[in-house]
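Exercise: predict the fold of this chain.
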Amino acid sequence: MAKGFDYALSDRPEVAGFLPKQYATVLEIGCSKGGFKSSLNPAVEVWGVEPDDLAAAEAGSRGYKVLTGLYENVSDRCPDHYFDVVICNDVIEHMVDHEKFLEDIKRKLKKNGHLVGSIPNVRHFGNLFRLLIKKDWRYEDRGVLDRTHLRFFTEKSLHRTFSANGYVINELRGINSDFDQPKRIRQLARNALVLMIIALSFGYFGDIKYLQFGFRLQLSE
């Protein structure tokens, strides 16, 4: 990550690719400073939920109608059956009860609305390296093992979770892979232990190379 990079202001182009083509009303859960707004269609009505006062104020200056607080504390102030898209960029893994959230947020979506977002991949090879080779599970200030993460997901468990909670998966795929960066590929190729992790994946390399998964969901009938 580049020096000086402000994740809270990122437009997250890798997630923007999951947005539907047409939408007019958006609710972003955990909108932070509002950086994702630049990835949205112009002239949309954008609401945000953000627990940090300073970040919420900055998001408000960027055009968000911000409700300051945790979603469960302000959800009754979000109109029901109003939003074409609800955005959850790296939010669900922080929730005490993510299934309750997935059920409750249905009330905020229009009939044909979409739930779009991203979530960390606990099977990322870097995490597997630390677990299998270093025999460690150390929480950190950021990344897959961010110390504020309360839930961990794999591609398989995400499919199960979304389906079990009444969603149709329009798209779910890996995003943010080190293997998309030529310089990073050369670095990894020099590490025999990393190659061992890839071998130990028993051919399931498709998911372990991604830091996160992006998704677009709709309500099942």
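Check your answer against the key: The first strand starts at residue 25 and ends at 29.
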